[in-house]
Every structure is written in C-alpha cells, then in structure tokens.
Write a structure and sequence with these properties.
Chain lengths: ~230, ~400
C-alpha cells in the first residue's frame, strides 16, 4: 500500500528509497515500472505517463530487482538477445551491443553457459546486463545486491556509480544503510506507504539532529510507532 | 500489436520448451512410445495369448463313463488330445485340461454328454465350443444315417437355412475401431502434451521470478500472452501430429508382420490416407489453440508448478469423458452435437476415418471450435492483465 508519495529524480542522480520490509518500496517501484497500476495519482518517467503510455515508459527504463529470476535453461547470451529484441534493437546492433555489455561486466567467460550452471554473482551480472542492454536513461533498481556476497555486491555498486557518472537517472531501493550512504545523492525514507523524509544526507542530519543514517532511520520508525500507539 | 515482440516471445518459449525434459517427455516421448505401446499390447494379446489358448484348448479330459466309440473317434478326428480322467470336472477346475467330458444316463435311457468348462478361461471356452460343435455334428450324422435307413430324406431335418451377412466392409469395421481409439488417444495426449509447457510458461515463470522481468520489457501483456499461447498451441499440436504419425507407423508395422490375428490384419488395412490425415489435423488445429488457452488461463492462477499441476490434472480427466462417450457405437454427429466441445472433435475424427462425415457437421464443429478457442484466448488475455492474479503471493 502506497499513500500520496511524491518525489523527483533527475539525470545523473541516484535517489535511494529506504524502508523496512512491507514499507511500500517494491510497490512504488512496480508502479513506476508499469507492472502495477496506481489506483489514483500520476507518475511520469522521462516525460511519459506510466498509466497512459506504459510501453513507452518501459522502453526508457531498465528494471532490476534482487529476486529477479533468469531462464535456467537458456544462456546469458540467449537471454540478452531476447530482451534486446523486445527492446527493438536491430539484429546487427544487438550482436555488438551484447559483446559491449558482456565486456563491461566481465561476462565473456560464461556468456554462452546455461544459467543453471552459473554462480549467484554471475547470474546477477547477467540480470544487470539485461537491464542495461538497451542503454535506458532511467534505472529502477529494487535491492539489486540482495543475497550477493560482498565482492559481487561491491562490483554492482561500482557499476551503478559509473552509470550515474554517464548521466543515468537512478531510483534505488535498499534496506542496507551503508549501501544507501555510499551510493545515493538523496535518500527518501519510506514507512507504512508514506515518505517520512527526503533529502541529501546533510539535509537528513540537519532535520533529525542525528549523524548516522541508521540512527536517522530508526528514529523515524520509532516516531511512527509512538504515533501509532497514541492513536 | 507488435508482431516482432510476439515472435520473440514465441521463439523464447519454444527454445525453453525444447530444453525442458518434462515438456519433451509429455510432448514427444509419450506419443511416440504410447502408440506403439498400445499396439504392442494388442499384438501380444491377439497373437501370443490367442495362440496359447488355442493350443491349450486341445487338451480334453475324458471320463471313463464315455463309452461310445464313435464319440471318441469323432473327437480324435477333430485333432483333440483326449486325456482319461477319473473326475473330469475337477480336472477342469484345477486347469489340468481345458474342458472335460462326462456321460450320464437319464431315466428315459437317453445318454447325456456333459461338457465341463470354465468361462473365465479363454482356452476352456474355445474347447467347449469345439466339443459342442463336434458332438452336434456327430449327433446329426447319426440321425441322418438312421433316417437314410428308414428311407426318409435328410431334408426333413433342414427345411430352410439361416445365415447372417455383415454389410459393413472389413475396412469400415477396422475404421470404426481405429477412429474410436484415435480420437480418444489424440485428444488425451494433446492435453497432456501441452500441459507441462503451459505450466512452465505461466506458473513456472512466477515461481522462478522471471515473469516480472518480461512484464517490465516494452512488450505489451497481449503480445506476451499471445506468444505464450502460440507456443503452447504448437506443443499440443505437435503432440497430436506425433501421436497420429506414431499410430500410422505402428499400424504399418503390424500389417507387415507374418501371421497375426484377423483384427490386426483388419486394422493394418484401414490405415488412413493423406486426405484423411489432413482433415484430422485441420479438425485438431482450433482444438490445440483452445486447449493451450484453457490450460494457460488455469495455470496463471497458480503460484507455482505444483499448484498448477493439481489445478490442471482434473481438466485432463474432464476432457477424457466426452472423448470416451464418442467411442460408444451408434453415435452420429448432427449439427447440435457438433457444438459440444471435445466430443465434436473425437466424434468427427471417428467419422472422418470411417469416411462418413458430412460437410455441414464438419464445418459446424470446426467453426464452433474456432469460436471456443477465441473465447478461451480472450479470457487468457484478460486474466493476464489482472494484477491480482499475476502478482498473487
């Protein structure tokens, strides 16, 4: 359940959505990725309305979630080819683009191996390659490092930083505080379907009087719980 | 609608399907093995068991009370192996002989020959029928001889004869058997053949968390579901084609065999020609689309593979009922019956094999199946757009 959420993210910016489980992060991201229809309100991505022009919105986004599955019986290259075609990339360009993305994510060694033979890290790199293949200006990433070991998670984070440097607009959901502090230009704390606070790390510190993101986050949650108890 | 996207989804499903062991088993292995399997069973029963029963039926237990030399001579002349028994009835019960003969004398002095038989054993029934025939013939010969001695014509015993003639040609008889089995088998295997692919591309995608990725691509839901339904239709239709091909190959093999029972020879001669096969496939085409759409719609409600399997298994059982009804003799397709899904297909297949279908019922059945397929397809699309079904957890 999401209630009157409002925010903007610009090019070359990472906005972090931070919240406990069930806060509404995934629902928000699914609505923006046009997987769910909002019951009311409006959302625009790259100038396109998510309800009125869902296919256009999907052309502009790269969507990745931590529990994204892959087709186990296909190879990474076959998966990239399928999603490249669905994104309208012509065959000749697709071949070179797959090689480019594979080189960028160091996938050459396993790109022709079936997914069920790959490690979790290799699979997540395949998912990331699938997300970036059509070079979308907007990335919607829902806990993309969830379940990964530290080196793989770090590699993904570095890649996201690189994507920001290239001007991509990134919406990033996580519940890992260190990750949010390291990656995000601005952070929105979401709880019970509402945005409790939004701003840069300095703005969050100033507004709450706390220094660490973990303390800010817990203080906001604690305040919500006390309000609920009074009601 | 972007047909390139539909083609991409279709291609992806086909690639995935041909690498899935479960789908390959239900789609290819079962029809290719099931049909020759059925015929191998028929072959075994008609040839081996029949021959064994035939041999066994020659062993007759004869009680010491059978004293008439002409009876024993007639039985020996018929090629029967006569085995003296103290208790002929018991010998039949403990299966040491196929049938037994005993003799009693009634109060009026007439000898009564008793034939002991076990109706649960084929060899015993064959032996009893043969004994009856030999003894009846002997009785008739004796009566004729007596009449001749008295100077009376034999014709007095046979003022007229009775014979019955089957107007159905052998080929028609075989076509009836073949058509009934074919319709039932093809429909059953079509549904089971399409079931695993339909589950894998819906509930399987949910379970593996791949559906979300597909939905977030620029392909519309209509394009995605159309690609999936076409792939499941291909699976069902491919199973039907393989079932028919396997059946024809099995029939040809049977026809080439030496010896064999009449039924086998009959069926092997009733092999349908290319036009008949073409008409059967044309009949099955909308049914494949109907089956695929129906199974995909149901499987979409499931959260995972196992749940989808338990939802779809009863459907296959429901499908079998109208297919079995059409196996009953005496049923003929009319315009009203041609509107009943599944039944119309299996009945029509039977009539096509028999060469007795009418254009009107063929077109009615075909058109109604196209309509059912389109309705099922429209429902699939609607369900696929339903968020609460897609993201059910």
């Amino acid at each position: 359940m999401v209630d009157h959420i409002s925010f903007e993210v610009g090019p070359g910016e990472i906005l972090g959505l931070l919240g406990p489980n069930g806060a509404g992060k995934t629902t928000t991201l699914r609505m923006l990725a046009t997987l769910l229809k909002p019951s009311s309100g409006r959302a625009r991505i790259g100038g396109r309305d998510v309800t009125a022009e869902p296919a256009e919105v999907r052309r502009k986004i790269g969507f990745l979630s931590g529990d994204t599955g892959l087709y186990h019986r296909l190879t990474s290259r076959e998966i990239l080819r399928i999603f490249g075609r669905l994104n309208g990339i012509d065959e000749r360009r697709l071949r070179s683009r797959i090689d480019e993305v594979a080189a960028m994510l160091r996938m050459e060694e396993f790109i022709d191996t079936k997914i069920d033979k790959l490690s979790t890290g290799m699979r997540q790199r395949t998912s990331l390659a699938r997300t970036l293949l059509h070079d979308p200006p907007i990335l919607i990433l829902d806990e993309p490092t969830s379940g990964l070991d530290v080196p793989t998670a770090r590699a993904i984070e570095e890649f996201i930083v690189e994507a920001r440097r290239s001007g991509k607009c990134i919406l990033y959901s996580t519940h890992v505080m260190e990750e949010a502090e390291f990656l995000c230009d601005r952070i929105a704390v979401i709880n019970e379907g509402k945005i409790r606070i939004i701003g840069t790390m300095n703005e969050l510190k100033a507004a709450t009087g706390r220094q660490r993101l973990r303390e800010i986050f817990l203080a906001l949650l604690d305040s919500d719980m006390r309000k609920a108890a009074v009601v | 609608m972007n047909l390139k996207a539909v083609k991409t989804i279709y291609g992806k499903e086909m690639l995935d399907m041909f690498r899935d062991r479960r789908s390959l088993i239900s789609m290819i292995v079962v029809p290719v093995i099931a049909m020759p399997g059925i015929f191998a069973v028929i072959h075994y029963f008609t040839q081996n068991l029949g021959r064994k029963a035939e041999l066994e039926s020659l062993r007759i237990g004869v009680s010491a009370s059978i004293s008439q030399a002409p009876i024993l001579a007639a039985l020996k002349a018929a090629g029967l192996e006569l085995l003296p028994q103290q208790d002929a009835r018991r010998a039949v019960e403990n299966k040491s002989v196929a049938a037994g003969l005993d003799q009693t004398r009634a109060d009026d002095g007439i000898d009564n020959i008793v034939i002991y038989r076990d109706r649960t054993r084929e060899a015993s029934s064959i032996a009893a029928e043969r004994l009856t025939s030999v003894l009846e013939q002997l009785k008739l010969d004796q009566v004729k001889s007596s009449l001749r001695g008295l100077g009376v014509s034999e014709r007095i015993l046979n003022p007229f004869t009775v014979t019955s003639a089957n107007v159905a040609a052998d080929k028609k008889m075989a076509g009836f058997i073949l058509g009934s089995v074919l319709g039932y088998a093809v429909l059953l295997l079509m549904f089971t053949g399409g079931m695993y692919p339909a589950i894998d591309m819906t509930a399987g995608e949910k379970e593996r968390h791949t559906l979300e990725t597909l939905l977030a691509s620029p392909a519309t839901r209509q394009e995605i579901i159309l690609g999936k339904i076409l792939a499941a239709t291909t699976a069902s239709f491919l199973t039907a084609m393989l079932t028919i091909a396997s059946l024809l190959a099995a029939m040809q093999r049977m026809g080439m065999g030496r010896g064999g029972a009449e039924l086998e020879k009959l069926i092997s001669r009733a092999a349908p020609d290319a036009l008949t096969v073409g008409l059967i496939l044309l009949t099955l085409l909308p049914t494949a689309l109907f089956a695929a759409s129906l199974m995909i719609t149901i499987a979409l409600f499931a959260r995972g593979f196992k749940e989808a399997q338990s939802l779809l298994t009863p459907l296959v059982m429901v499908v079998v009922v109208p297919a079995v009804i059409s196996m009953l003799p005496g049923l003929e397709l009319n315009v009203g019956l041609a509107l009943i899904p599944i039944f119309n297909v299996s009945q029509l297949i039977k009539e096509i094999v028999l060469g007795e279908y009418s254009r009107l019922t063929f077109l009615t059945a075909f058109a109604s199946n196209v309509v059912y397929a389109l309705i099922a397809f429209a429902i699939s699309v609607r369900i696929f757009k339903n968020e609460s079904v897609l993201f059910r957890s």
